[in-house]
Write a structure and sequence with these properties.
about 0% strand, 3 helices, mainly alpha, about 80% helix, rod-shaped
């Protein structure tokens, strides 16, 4: 909290960046790094949150792509082994 008992980062900004990060993960990663290196503990916590969400949103499409490529191939192997 700053001198006026207002949060350093508003809830609207937190939610807005998270929503933006869902569609564009680099937003969360870049803003997460910028806020994470700040000395203010509140900014550091928000930066960690945004960085985490950004990394997760980069990993999810990778996992989905791997599953889309390899699961059908495994189905063919299982079907061939069952015969």
């Amino acid at each position: 909290m700053n001198d006026n008992n207002q949060p350093v980062v508003s809830d609207g900004l937190k939610i807005g960046v998270i929503i933006g990060t869902v569609f564009f993960p680099l937003i969360g990663i870049i803003l997460g790094i910028v806020f994470f290196v700040d000395a203010n503990p509140e900014k550091k916590a928000v930066g960690k949150l945004w960085l985490t969400v950004g990394c997760i949103m980069l990993i999810i499409p990778c996992i989905c792509t791997i599953l889309a490529l390899f699961v059908p191939a495994c189905g063919g192997i299982i079907a061939a082994a069952a015969q």
